Amino acid sequence: MHIAPEVRAARDAGTPIVALESTIISHGLPRPRNLEAAREFEQIVRDAGAVPATIAIVDGVARVGLDADALARIAGEGVAKASVRDIPILCARGGTGATTVAGTVAIAARAGIRVFATGGLGGVHHGASTSFDESADIAALSSHPVAVVCAGVKSVLDVGATLERMETLSVPVVGWRTGRFPMFWLSSSEHDLDWRVESADEVAAILREQDAARAGAGLVVANPLPEDLQWDPAEHDAVVAQARAEAERDGIHGKAVTPYLLGRIVELSSGRSLEVNLDLVRSNIRVAAAIATAYAAA
Ligand code: PSU
Ligand code: MN
After folding, report:
1. I need a surface site. Which of 103, 172, 194, 267 has the fewest CB within 10 A?
2. Where does substrate bind (predicted)?
3. Contacts of 237 (CB under 8 A, 6+ apart)
């Protein structure tokens, strides 16, 4: 593992760091917007007074903090999608991979980074009771002490089943200024949360308690977009239903499912889903930077 000097310095000085994932860059956003977005995401962290640590596997090395060349590599073609189990294989063969939420959380934990921002978590897919398609993101969050700020789970998933799995695996979930679990492009879902938080200090206090208890688990901070920024619900429902039907028709399975759905949804919505996706990541990064700052000060 290689930790960039800027990230190492921040860690040693106890100043705030926000981890960022790379699958969203390689497989979640269309080129060339993805590279522009990757740079902007890092800048939002900096503007908030924290250090960004984008995580990826580059030429066989797990990197925490990417330089401009590495960021461009990750935004280019031919980059593997790397979940936790793929990391040692890619490292052993000198490969290059973009880490998912699961992969990012595993590396961030090793690097001692406590706060991470992404778009939406992976979770339980519809039909998982027969396909067993459940993202490794949930298991990774149960076994690595990294808090992730996200807009809930992607609404292409079975949101209720995902919340049940997080309960089973003892992944704590708090709503950021909401009592409802958000649904990625949409600001809310029909699912109530047990806990809501109002401030970064409150989240930092939870992280401290987890540290003291050596809890080992992460934390999901669910941050909805304000309603005026969400995707039009009627268009959302129609487009998501069509994309899911096409994925089934085309026999898409395994790790290809999520990138296929996200890509198809951007096409079917003429890019409207993409703008909302970018907005929610920006919002999550701002909240993550505030939490990292509160945690560093505590
Ligand atoms: N959130 C986004 N865009 C994405 C993803 C999340 O806004 O592309 C990615 C994350 O990297 C997440 C992955 O970990 O999708 C989930 O993939 P799977 O369902 O195959 O576990
Ligand atoms: Mn899957």
Report:
1. 194
2. 81, 101, 135-137
3. none
Tokens of 129: 């009771």
CATH class of the region 2-296: alpha beta
Closest ligand to the CA of 280: 1
Per-residue pLDDT of 195-248, as tens digits, reads 999 999 999 999 999 999 999 999 999 999 999 999 999 999 999 999 999 999
**Which residues are within 8 A (CB) of 285 and not within 5 positions of it... i.e. 6 or more apart?**
18, 20, 41, 44, 45, 48, 117, 149
How large is the ipTM? 0.95
Element (H, E) at 99: strand 97-99
Burial of 68 (0-12, 13-18, 19+ CB in 10 A): exposed
Residue with tokens 């951007």: 266
d(C-alpha 243, C-alpha 239), whole Å? 6
Q: How far does residue 122's CA lie from ligand 2's centre (Å)?
A: 8
Determine which residue's CA is closest to atom 5 belonging to ligand 1: 24
- CA dist 241 and 138 (Å) reads 24
Ligand 1 centroid to residue 298 C-alpha, Å: 31
Residue pLDDT, tens place only, 248-273: 999 999 999 999 999 999 999 999 99
> Against a cut of 0.95, is the pTM above it?
yes
Q: Where are the domains of the chain?
A: 2-296
Contact 133 CB / ligand 1 (< 6 Å): no
255 lines ligand 1 (CB under 6 A): yes
In this structure, which ligand is nearest to the CA of 262? 1
